[in-house]
């Protein structure tokens, strides 16, 4: 199986990608979404999520994979809404880290699925700053279709985003960093919109 991943600055764009993947016949069991929905925020985090491993329900009107959205707190990222196969991997890694066992968190969860480690750090930092990750596992015969759907919705250019972060002094995702607050996420999204508008 191949893992194909896209990062989106707009949560609704990521949700639309999930719906399109499902409509194209890719099983919900092979799709994951992890991100910061501006309409949920930290109020859904709950006691379990504060431990870094809890997953609590988030009620929504969507079907398919999105009907199973729950709340998860990821070390270094904070509370996110999440659904799909990546959730159990991240939750397990977070629980292990909290219990003093296996470490790795979001970075380990991504690299274990075949994501390049340097890219995984950018994806994780993007999540921390309010972006949303869509990841799909597919067989060879569906890989081109999944890649086309993910790229069609204009995901973040990971190389450009890494360069932007590094210009600001960032080096790697740090699980010990505090997650962004809702206000910080809103400011970051505004800054990214302005940054994109200035690009040629």
From TrEMBL:
Pfam families: YflT. It comes from the Bacteria. InterPro entries: GSP17M-like_dom (IPR025889), Low_temp-induced_all0457 (IPR052948). Residues 5-69 form the General stress protein 17M-like domain. PANTHER family: MEMBRANE PROTEIN, MEMBRANE PROTEIN-RELATED. This is General stress protein 17M-like domain-containing protein.
